[in-house]
Here is the input.
Amino acid sequence: MTILGVPTQALFGQLLIGLINGAFYALLSLGLSVIFGLLNIINFTHGAQYMMGAFVAYFLLQWAGLGYWWALLIAPVVVGITGIVLERTMLKRLYQLDHLYGLLLTFGFALIIQGLFRHEYGSSGLPYSMPRELAGGQNLGFMFLPNYRAWVIVFSLAVCLTTWYVIERTRLGSYLRAATENPALVQAFGINVPRMITLTYGFGVGLAALAGVLAAPIYQVNPLMGADLIIVVFAVVVIGGLGSIMGSIVTGFALGVVEGFTKVFYPEASNTVIFVIMALVLLVRPSGLFGRAS
Amino acid sequence: MPEPLLEVRDLHAWYGESHILHGVDFEIGPGEMVTLLGRNGAGKTTTLKSIMGIVGRRRGSIRFEGRELIDLPSNRIARLGLAFCPEERGIFASLTVEENLLLPPVVRPGGLGVDAIYGLFPNLRERLRAGGTTLSGGEQQMLAIGRILRTGARLLLLDEPTEGLAPVIVQQIGVTLRRLKSEGFTVLLVEQNFRFAATVADRHYVMEHGRVVDMIPNGELDANMNKLHDYLGV
Here is the structure.
C-alpha cells in the first residue's frame, strides 16, 4: 500500500521517529520555557543537563545496580540538585543584567560539563539497555511499534501535560505565572519568590535530565548527545515562542513530525527543515507562533 | 494616643544612586485611617514601598506592632500582617479575576471571606473567569483592594486608589474605606485628591522633599486650608 507514492510502512515509520524526536523536543523546550519565564535566563546548559541525566542513569546501573525505573526517578532529582546549586551560587547574580550574561554563563557551563565528560568517557557512546518490561513490540498490521518507543511518547506527553496543568490550572501555577509578570509584588504578598525561582530552575533542569534517561536506551549515553540536540531545541523554542508552555509542547511534537515526514518526501532537507521554518517564523512573527508580543 | 501600630522613624530610602527619602517620621494607631499628602515626587509612594520592603535600599526604623521591619525581606513583612495595593494596581494579565483574587496567601486569621468581598464589589463576581486585565480600570482597582482584604492583614497600604477613576467609582471606594475602618482595619492611604481624603481619613501627614513636614487632624482641615494649598500647590 502506498500514499503519494510512498509505502505506508515507511511513512508510519518516519511518523514514529518524528514523534519520538518530538517528545524530546517538547520535554526540553518545555524546561527552557519554564526557566526563561521566571528567571529571564536562556539556559544553554540544558543540553548538558540532558546528557547528565543519561549519565546518572548509566552510573546508577554500573555502580549501584539500580536499573532504568530507579534512574527515571533518581536522575532528575540528582541533576536538578546540581541545577539548584548552580542557581544559588551563580545564576541568581545575573537576574538584573541583560539576557546575554545568563546565556554566556550557561553556555560556558555547557562546554565545561561536556568537556569533562568527554575527557573521561570519550565520544563513542556507552550502551544502556532498555528495561526488560518494555522489550519487544506490537505488530499493528500497518507497522511494527517497539514498546519502548511507544512508552517514550506516551510518558513524555503525560509529563508535558501534567506540567502544563500545574502551571495553568493550580494555585502553585498561579504564583508562578504572577511572579513571571511582577516578582516584586508577588513577594510583597508574602510568597518567597527567590526560593520559588530556585526550585523552578531545579524543576526545569530535572525535566532535561528526565529526557536524558528516556533517551539513554535509544541513543546510547554520549557526552555530546545534548550538544547535538540542543541546537534544534532552541530552534523549536524560537518557533513556538519563548515562555509559552503549551506552545513548547505543541511545537515540539509538531516539528518532530514535520522533520520525520521531510525525511520521507525530501530527505535532503530533513536536517534543515526546522531551521528553515525558524527563519520564516522569525520573519512573520518574531515572538513565535504562541509567544506574546512584548 | 495608644501604642502605635506602625511607627516610622528617620526612614531613608534610595533607588540606585538617588536618595529619595530623607528621614521620614510618622506613626499610625490601631484602627486609624491616615493619609500621606504631597506633590508628585515628595516621596509618598516610596514611603509605602519602603514599609513593604520593595525599594532598593533603606535605613532607619519601621516598627510594626513593636517589631522592627527594616531588615526583613518583603515576603516576611507581608506575613506579619501588612498588605500593599500598588498605584498601578498590579493586576496579573496571565491570571483570571478569581486567580488574582485568591493569589495573596492568607497570613493571619480574620480576613474577609470571598463572599464579603463580592458583597463590597459585586462586579467582580460576574467576571471571575475573565482575564484579570480585561476588567475596566475601576474594576481592576476593586480587585486590587479586594484581594488584600482576604489575607487577614491588619494594616493596608493603599497607593492612590482613586487615581483616574470615574466619580461614581471613587464614591464606591470611599464607602468601602469607611466600611473597612468600621471593621477595625488600619489604613495608610496615599492620595493626590485631598477632597476625597478628607471624607475618609482621621489625620493627614504632608510630605515634601522626602520628609514629613506637617500633620493635620481631619477636623482642623478647614482651618488649615490655605497652608494645605501652599503645600500641594493647588
Observations:
- Chain A touches chain B through 18 residues (CB under 8 Å).
